[in-house]
Design goal:
The structure is a homodimer of 385-residue chains. With 385 residues, the first copy, chain A, is α/β, with parallel strands linked by helices. Chain A is built from 14 helices and 15 strands. The longest helix of chain A is centred in the C-terminal third of the chain and has 21 residues. Chains A, B: One of its GO terms (molecular function) is L-serine-pyruvate transaminase activity.
């Protein structure tokens, strides 16, 4: 049995919260309309800009990531409009479900789960659906560990149409390069509980000027998720239209400091390295990686266990008995894959440990495992051998 | 200048968070789909039942109170339906705005701010609008400190129509008696940052069987705020459809323990007493109470300063320099009233202190104040003189 509370949260979010951030959140609660709260909101929004790669003011919503995905839909589209949704996994599928819920004509580009969408596939699809007003993309598809080539995909959209480019960046923004302005992304969404190292409860959106124009003309009703209200309150009063989750904002300020101290380029290369270590270790254990090298996400790695003789859910349970939490598969991948999160407050030694735990667990399940293969491979990456 | 972080948050929410609750929220983050999270969600929902006075399972949304107000609208009504909204202040007005946003026929019963809605007024109004499918009420109107007689108003609705009774209980549920099942309330809404002594970020709804039937037949699209999805996930898997704000749930579990230890009847009588002390002190200072005795809320007291010679906003600023935060007026009451919150983690001595600070501040603003009048009156109530 693991020591009490000494567990290893290696799921692709929520991610571990650094002690500094925990401490920041225990500051006494302040009024959401106080000067202190306004300073906090204004400062956090300002300091989120480089994370998104934008000159726009990121907006802060009290809600989970899905609230911001829905905001991106209801603010830009109305019933009868058409939209293209690229579905590479469960979160692309969620975007599609939101679009359908609101009576928007859905053109769904389904990519086999575990693969990325290639720009050519998207280009062909857009030619067939020239009426689409928005194209929805997933940056990191959390359910498969695939990082879609968002910069190229956004460029493809811009070459073929005037559609807005709307990106779910929930499980990677803050850990991977993001230059939404340069890439031509119109709305980028993320959440607090992933690379930003906070508990769940905040969602963030950055919106291009082009998208603001569409939003201004869009008649779809929205209230809590009315982005124009968020923009107006932020620009005019440095605040949010509805009560801000102030304790999480205190945490956000601190987690932004951590990212800034490390340097955002270093943060990205750390995640790149964590990915490489994870993949090297998994390969050395004789396990099968789901995503290919070119499209593997720096934030989460999926292991395809569909051909293994052992039961994935029994394996995850056994791993938990050592204090390690990894994620299972979603929808049709349930029982077929497991996923190791390596984003946010995570270093190389955290990965070394989970790799060792995977080997120990498989051995305990009666699999023939040569101990040390995964950690050796991990160390080789660390040593740049 | 007050000592750092040693301030007195006496606004009607967010309210101070008890140290036990702060500590509970610093527990390591857990996966939102873990067994631990499910236990937490199930247990919190179960223990919220007596707070709402219901046999239904309260639902937990990651969002601020307004998200739950909107959920109550979009789940029960569709464009073309009619609704009655009783507006006794800024939060009744918010309900009306949400109703209008969604193209629902709004029948607005405006009551002068500072007054409660009387059952006879509602009865007359309902007779004029027999087609209303829902009637929206505010339990405590935060902007004025009026506690509307919700039990009587709900009974009135039931006598006159089949409309659903939907109540905003954000700034009082958890501090005042609430028997929604017995009263015939169909949807009761509250938030985390008021009587429940948590930071902002959670909203709660309890829904009657009658309302569930209406919801099942309602075609208005909704996704993040789809209450049927919350109910299904809670009943079938003890979880939420979207990532739960797990750290706040850890806090909620602890704050429910505090309420249970004190005993919910004692919690209600404490708030009643805090109201009486506040009102006695304010009267003794020669200031004017906004709400009458019969309809004053146990959670917030508004002081009508519209006839005073001093400037309310200057007064609030000066009071802040002593470390005391009270709220100003909203909308047309801005600059005319101030509001003292006395809910949640608040005791008699907290009120004695703020009353003394009000006197000291008024004296510093050049008003002729006899020191000790307010605290004397407060102590007399404490001593049951």
């Amino acid at each position: 049995m693991p020591l009490k509370d000494k567990y290893h949260l290696r799921i692709p979010g929520p991610t571990p919260v650094p002690p500094q951030v925990q401490r920041a959140m225990t500051q006494p609660v302040i009024g959401h309309r106080s000067r202190l709260a306004s300073q906090l909101i204004q400062e956090c929004s300002e300091r989120l800009k480089p994370i998104f790669g934008t000159r726009q003011q990121p907006l802060i919503v009290a809600g989970s990531g899905t609230s911001a995905l829905e905001a991106a839909v209801v603010n830009t589209l109305s019933p009868g409009d058409e939209a293209v949704v690229v579905v590479t996994g469960a979160f692309g599928d969620r975007f599609a479900k939101i679009v359908e819920t609101y009576g928007i004509g859905l053109h769904r580009l389904d990519i086999p789960w575990g693969k990325a969408c290639e720009p050519e596939q998207l280009a062909d699809f857009l030619k067939k659906h020239p009426g689409a007003k928005s194209v929805f993309l997933t940056y990191c598809e959390t359910s498969t560990g695939v990082l879609n080539p968002v910069a190229e995909l956004a460029r493809t959209v811009r070459q073929h149409s005037d559609a807005l480019v709307i990106v779910d960046g929930v499980s990677c923004v803050g850990a991977v390069p993001c230059q939404m302005d340069d890439w031509g992304v119109d709305i980028m969404v993320t959440g607090s509980q992933k690379a930003l190292m906070l508990p769940p409860g905040l969602a963030f959106l950055a919106v291009s000027e082009r998208a603001w124009q569409v939003i201004a003309g869009n008649r779809q009703p929205r209230f809590y998720l009315n982005l124009e209200a968020y923009r107006r309150k932020l620009e005019q009063e440095d605040t949010t239209p509805f009560t801000a989750a102030v304790s999480l904002l205190y945490g956000l300020k601190e987690s932004l400091s951590l990212l800034e101290e490390e340097g955002f380029e270093n943060v990205c290369s750390r995640h790149e390295r964590l990915k490489n270590i994870t993949r090297a270790g998994i390969r050395a254990s004789g396990l099968t990686l789901m995503a290919d090298d070119r499209h593997a996400s720096p934030t989460v790695t999926s292991i395809d266990a569909s051909q293994e003789k052992w039961d994935v859910e029994a394996f995850r349970k056994k791993l938990q008995s050592h204090g390690f939490y990894v994620a299972g598969g979603q929808q049709h991948l349930k029982g077929k894959i497991f996923r190791i999160g390596h984003m946010g407050y995570c270093d190389e030694w955290d990965i070394l440990t989970v790799l060792a735990a995977v080997e120990v667990t498989l051995s305990q399940m009666g699999q023939s495992v040569e101990p040390g293969m995964a950690t050796k491979a991990a160390q080789e990456v660390m040593m740049d051998v």
